[in-house]
From TrEMBL:
Protein name: E3 ubiquitin-protein ligase RNF170
A GO cellular component entry from the record: endomembrane system
CDD domains for the chain: RING-HC_RNF113A_B
InterPro entries: DUF1232 (IPR010652), RNF170 (IPR038896), Znf_RING (IPR001841), Znf_RING/FYVE/PHD (IPR013083), Znf_RING_CS (IPR017907)
SUPFAM superfamilies: RING/U-box
Ranges of residues in domain RING-type: 10-53
UniProt entry keywords in alphabetical sequence: Membrane, Metal-binding, Transmembrane, Transmembrane helix, Zinc, Zinc-finger
Membrane topology: Multi-pass membrane protein
Length: 185
């Protein structure tokens, strides 16, 4: 979703959203509320989502919030969100965190690919197509690291691993596009 659900409210202040931001765990918060959660804890570590307790490594403000940049208070909150993304958005994350973030980034990527109003950078599109093409060629080719003919169902493990690696790669590239687009790099 490009904006929070209409019948929802911020889980921190329990009020209507003010400068809504979506975290990498897919939950929505007011920009100033989630920054308050971060400032309440250690400023040297990313905060955890108040709902699911996952580490928040990326905050994505809505386009509506970004259009309010002329307002001094909104501008200050958006600058702090950019600062948060700059600090925690590009850092090393565990494989488990990447796997948990995968559905979030793939959903957003699919929505963005279907939206004619949005355009992704040509370099990203080329890398994504190249990675997908190579993975399809590998999965469809008779040459396998673990052949299905010898090992049966277990022989499909390498195909699934290749597809997982490609999806993780595409999600990482899309994450860097989002960081760049929202001022995180």
């Amino acid at each position: 979703m490009d904006s929070p659900p209409a019948n929802d409210c911020c889980s921190v202040c329990h009020d209507d959203f003010s400068l809504p931001c979506q975290a990498n765990c897919s939950h929505w918060f007011c920009g100033h509320c989630i920054l308050g959660v971060w400032h309440h804890g250690s400023a040297l570590q990313p905060c955890k989502c108040p709902i699911c307790r996952r580490v928040i490594t990326l905050l994505i403000p809505t386009q509506t919030a970004l259009r309010q940049r002329h307002d001094p208070e909104a501008s200050h909150v958006l600058e702090n969100i950019e600062n948060y993304n700059r600090i925690f958005g590009g850092g090393a994350r565990s494989v488990v965190q990447r796997l948990r973030d995968l559905p979030f980034f793939l959903r957003r990527l699919c929505r963005e690919l279907m939206d004619p109003q949005r355009s992704l950078p040509l370099v990203f599109k080329a890398r994504m197509i190249f990675a997908m093409l190579l993975s399809v060629i590998y999965v469809l080719s008779p040459v396998d690291i673990v052949p299905e003919g010898v090992f049966g169902f277990i022989g499909l493990v390498d195909d699934f691993l290749i597809l997982l690696i490609v999806f993780l790669h595409v999600a990482a590239i899309y994450r860097s596009v989002l960081l760049y687009r929202h001022g995180g790099s």
